Amino acid sequence: MDGRRPLLRRLPGPSLGSGPPASLRVTAQAPAPADAALLDLLSGLEAVGYDFVSPTPATHRLVARRRRADKADVLRDILGWGRAFDPETAPAWLLDALTEANAVREDADGLRARLRVSRLDGRLHLHSASGADEQAVFLGPDSYRYVRFLRQALSGGAWRKALEIGVGAGAGALAIAALDPEAAVVATDINPHALRLCRLNARHAGLPIDLRRGGFPTQGIWDLIAGNPPYMAGRSGRLYRDGGDHYGAEVALEWAAEALSRLAPGGRLLLYTGAPIVAGQDLVRSGLTTLARQRGARMVYEEIDPDVFGASLAGSSYAEVERIAAVGAIVTA
């Protein structure tokens, strides 16, 4: 770089994509050095009162592009807005933690963090810096709506065994565990990167989560099953996004069908997803209504936000769709 010293000291260690074993209980066991660095990062951010709410990708791009670097707000610039930064302007503890965790890369404009940190439901969450990668771990406005839906649905309730499918960064599983610390909470994901970040987020929050790689466990009956399945139509190749056929409703309906076969009598499925509206008809509601009737279950259904991801309707996969609604369903076995 024009004879100057390298911006980034390269250290050996696992990349952010390295995942945990198939099943790993969040315990007090000593973490690997890279994981310890990220836990130190979260502790440091907590100590200085770091706060950032993750907006939509469009808002993020717009604000990050027009925002000027602010030395008084360097942590949010680096870990919230994801701006490139000069290592001389970053706190030493932050740069040390990112370097030790292999969570920073050289950029044309300096250095750039490979991940972001946002606060949701009072807790800090590590998540991916960009949604473009196949194994990106998403956290955004949908995550905030999902957790609010869970908290409202679970107020005053009780459960002994809870399962979350597609845990991602852990927003839902951590919210469930925080509401009842005595309950056994199992969370799964097919993405090993998501499991790693969720494990770190849970450890920082002091919440016990049993993490397992995959979808529904092969065995087990549950009092509570929750999920925020991917629901976008088309084939982007991104695990957190692609909802399959039926304008993106396929995965949500498949999860619901499997969940209803795994619930104890009186158990509940809490499903937050996006519903394509075609000719005035909500395809998710129609599918869940039929499923609940076939299984002898009861359903409460709510349209939480009538219009999300409106820009996606320009794509050919949505040629027949009027809008995408964020919805929440509570199905009781």
Notes on the protein architecture:
It is a single chain. Helix 5 (141-154) packs parallel to helix 6. This protein has helices at 33-47, 57-66, 74-80, 92-100, 141-154, 171-179, 192-205, 245-248, 250-260, 283-295, and strands at residues 23-25, 104-107, 110-113, 115-120, 123-128, 161-165, 184-189, 210-213, 222-227, 263-278, 281-282, 298-305, 321-332. It folds into two domains: 29-120, no CATH class; 135-332, 3-Layer(aba) Sandwich (Rossmann fold). The strands form three sheets. Strands 1, 6, 7, 8, 9, 10, 11, 12 and 13 form a nine-stranded mixed sheet that branches. A two-stranded antiparallel ribbon has the order 2-3. The chain has a two-stranded antiparallel ribbon with strand order 4-5. The protein is globular and about 65 Å long. It has 333 residues and is an alpha/beta fold. The relative contact order is 0.12.
